[in-house]
Amino acid sequence: QLLGQNRFDEAVMIFLENARAYPDSWNVYDSLAEAYMKRGQREKAVEYYKKSLSINPENDNAREMLKRISRKKDR
Q: Which of 4, 34, 5 is nearest to 18 (CA)?
């Protein structure tokens, strides 16, 4: 809900807390990466998309987002 309301700072705080509570949840890191991406912090987004993929190598969303970020960086 916070992401949908453009409340990215609050979303990051919530997702960081979720990551502390559920460190083995790939979905938490995927959501955290999305929040960082919307906040304009690509490096952090990459870090957490990679973390999500390390837990769940079949996370197609993380894989696709890393490709998109890489393409934007190459422009």
A: 34
